[in-house]
Amino acid sequence: MFRRALRPASSALKAARASPAPALRAYATHGVTRDPMTGELTGLPNIDVSKLVVSKTETPKLVPPSETLRFGHTFSDHMLSINWNSGSGWKAPVIGPYAPLVLDPSAVIFHYAPTLFEGMKAYRDAEGRVRLFRPDMNMARMNRSAARAALPTFNGDALISLIRQLVLLDQHWIPSAPGHSLYIRPTLIGTQTALGVGPSTDALLFVICSPVGPYYKNGFKPVSLLATSDKVRAWPGGTGGYKLGSNYVQGVAPQIEAAKLGYDQNLWLFGEDHQLTEVGTMNLFVVIENADGTPELITPPLGDMILPGVTRDSILSLARDPVLELKERLPSNLKVSERQITMPELAALAEKGKLLECFGAGTAAIVSPVERIGFESKDIAVPVGSDGLGDVARAMMETIVGIQLGKIDHPWSIVC
Question: By the 8 A CB rule, do 183 and 212 touch?
C-alpha cells in the first residue's frame, strides 16, 4: 500500500476550527458567560470520557440481513447520551440501550428548532478492523454549528473517543457485504422546558447508529435536477453554511414539486444571475473544458450558503494533492477551483460540448452523478459514462472508498 506522511489540516478544517463563532447572548445566571471568540461557555466541565457509564442492553435485537436494509430505518442496540446544563456543564456520558427520548412538551426543540446533527460512517476493512473517516472534520463542523445555534460546544476529541467506544460495542451491526457501513448520527438539541426565544439552558447530545447498504444498490443511477430559483435553500447572512436541522425541512416541498415535473432533486440557484449553490442536500461539483482546452473541476466557494462538507473537502484535497493511486487517473493539467459559476454559463458550456460532468458530493453516496438539468423549460444533457459516472467522479469515488476501507493507507482513515 502507498504510504503518505500526515499532511497539514485541510483549508476547510482550518477554517472551521479558526473561524470566530457568531456573536451570541451570554447567560446571565450562575456567573456563566460564553467566550465571544470561541463560543465556549467558560468555567464549566467539558465532556469527560473517564466518567463514561456503559449499560448494555438485556434484549439485543437480531441483526437483519444486509439485503433488507433501507437507509436510516434500522438502528443498532445502543446509543450514547450526554446531558448539558448551563449551570453545571456537561454531565457524565452514558452508553445505554437504544430507546425513545423523554422530553417535555414545552422543550424548546419542539418550538424554536435548536437542533443540529452530523453524518459519518464506520467501515470494516479486509482485516476485520473498524475504521472511521475524518471524524475530526465532523467534530469541528458540529462545534461550529452549535455556536451558531447558541448551543453548547464541546471537546471534539472526547466525543470521538466516546463514538469509537459506541461503535466497537455495536460493531457486529456493521454489515460485511461490500459497500455497506454503519451510519453514525451525532445530534445536539436544546431541551429547556420553557417557552421563549433565547439560548437553551439545557441540551442533549446523543449518537445513534444505523447499518446501511450502498446508496446505489444496483449500480450508479445518474439523477436529474430541476434548477430552482423561485425558492432558495440559503442566503447571505443565514445558516446555510451550518448543519442545522432547520436547513433541511425547507427543501422538502420544493423536492416534491421537482418530482411532479419528472426530476429527482433541486439544483439550488441564487441571485439574479442564477449562481449555482448546492444540489439537494449535497455539495455540487462540475467539470468543464475551458477555451484553452484545460479541464477544470469547480465547486461553489464556502460561505453563508455552502455547507463545508467533509466529502467536498476530501475531493478538493485529493484533486490538488492526489495520492499515487489517483494521480494517474486525473488529467495532469486539471485545474481545481472554488469559484462561482452561473446557470447561464453552464448552459452555454453544455451547448458548446464543454460541460464534461456534474455530480453531488456527500457522506451518504460519496458522489451522485447528474445526467440532466432542467432550466427555463429546457433540459440540459450532462455526459456520463456507461456505468453512470464521469471520469473525475468515478476516480474520486473509488479513491475515497479505498481510503475508507484501509486499502489506501492514509491519515484520514482512523482505526477504532
Answer: yes
Share of the chain above pLDDT 90, in %: 87
Kindly give, in sequence order, each residue whose CB lies less than 8 Å from that of residue 367, ignoring residues fewer than 6 positions away.
Answer: 311, 359, 360, 361, 389, 393, 396, 397
SS3 19: coil
DSSP code per residue over 157-183: HHHHHHHHHHHHHTGGGS--STT-EEE
CA 284 – CA 235 distance, rounded (Å)? 16
Burial letters for 281-292: b for 16+ Cβ neighbours within 10 Å, e otherwise? bbbbbbbbbeee
Q: Measuring CA to CA, which residue among 275, 265, 285, 277 is closest to residue 358?
A: 285
Q: Please tell me the distance from the alpha carbon of residue 415 to that of residue 406, in angstroms, as a whole number.
A: 9
> pTM for this structure?
0.89
Instruction: Write out pLDDT tens, residues 3-14.
Output: 333 334 444 444
Joined grid coordinates for residue 316: 478538493
In this structure, what C-alpha cell is assigned to residue 261? 415535473
